[in-house]
Design a protein that fits this description.
Elements: H1 4-18, H2 21-28, H3 32-46, E1 51-53, E2 58-60, H4 62-86, E3 94-100, H5 102-118, E4 122-128, E5 142-146, E6 154-158, E7 165-169, H6 171-174, E8 192-194, E9 204-208, E10 211-215, E11 221-223, H7 226-234, E12 240-243, H8 244-253, E13 257-259, E14 270-275, H9 282-294
Parallel strand pairs: 3-4, 3-5, 8-11
Antiparallel strand pairs: 1-2, 5-14, 6-14, 7-12, 7-13, 9-10
Helix pairs in contact: 1-2, 1-4, 2-3
Length: 296
């Protein structure tokens, strides 16, 4: 079967995703010049320009953007059909592209490692980012997010037990500050503020016996990365509000101390989600089966 036409379309999607011929060529394992010639040839045959190119940037033209939005779901269907037709072998092979957050990836990394051990012919391509993206439009096979943020038209599978938030501070911090007894006490504490992907500052949420309290904490530093927040908390900068699985190592080591535990609410479970379609790619199906073995 001649797949050169499909390869050209995959090349268009890769350049559209990365906004870079170099990055797209790396993903597709071809040279940048070969990729550029391939797309230039497709544009010549179509009689339209799909990309605006300068020495500094690559962007879709209006025609290109419409073309990409049209071929993305069609190519996804073709990929699944080809894999379903040819994937009679016992061991799945190929690549699996997943989109998730950095914190979620950290939590489920043991599952990914087991997946790679069990299916050595599969390659995982995991993109972590805070913002929620359209996994179909961006060319991902599946995503992993908290259950309440997943689009309702997706099929979802639990991938973790429920977790809770935790308010934490270092022993050095508490040597100079009394532990808060209720959320409103946080108004007298230095806190490490969290910036969400939207740019908004996260207001700490608490609940006990049906009473809900939201606190717009104040402090000397605002961060958008859990690893940096933990580092600042260990240094005694202030209190931090993170998930239990982000703070597990520090709690076990005693480098951070938990407070307000009876006030911290539970999170939704993490879930793997993917588009509802008749044929699920073999690599994704294998991951789903592995998740179900864990019994979440």
């Amino acid at each position: 079967m001649n797949t050169s036409g499909l390869n050209e379309l995959e090349a268009v999607l890769a350049v559209a995703r990365h906004r870079s011929f170099r990055a797209a060529a790396t993903e597709l394992n071809v040279s940048t010049s070969a990729l550029s010639h391939s797309i230039a040839g497709l544009e010549a045959r179509m009689g339209v320009r799909l990309f605006n190119r300068t020495t500094r940037s690559v962007s879709l033209t209006e025609v290109g953007a419409e073309f990409v939005s049209t071929i993305t779901p069609a190519l996804s269907t073709i990929r699944v059909a080809l894999e379903h037709a040819g994937n009679r072998q016992a061991m799945p092979s190929g690549s699996l592209r997943l989109n998730t957050s950095a914190g979620a990836a950290k939590q489920v990394m043991p599952l990914f490692l087991e997946y790679m051990r069990r299916y050595p012919q599969m390659k995982l391509d995991i993109v972590t980012e805070g913002r929620l993206v359209d996994i179909v439009a961006q060319g991902f096979d599946a995503g992993i997010r908290l259950g309440d943020s997943i689009p309702q038209d997706m099929i979802a599978v639990d991938i973790s037990p429920r977790q809770r938030f935790a308010v934490l501070g270092s022993p050095a911090y508490f040597s100079n500050h009394p532990a808060p007894l209720n959320p409103l006490d946080l108004n007298t504490h230095e806190c490490i503020r969290s910036r969400m992907p939207s740019g908004a500052i996260y207001r700490w949420e608490f609940e006990r016996h049906g009473e809900a309290i939201t606190v717009d904490v104040q402090g000397p530093i605002t961060l958008d990365n859990p690893t940096l927040m933990l580092e600042a908390a260990r240094a005694g900068v202030g209190l931090v509000y993170l998930t239990e699985w982000n703070a597990a190592a520090d709690l076990a080591a005693g480098t951070l101390v938990r407070v307000l535990e009876e006030w911290t609410p539970s999170l939704e479970k993490l879930r793997l989600y993917y588009p509802g379609r008749r044929h699920v790619p073999a690599g994704l199906r294998a991951l789903i089966e592995l998740i179900r073995e864990e019994g979440f």
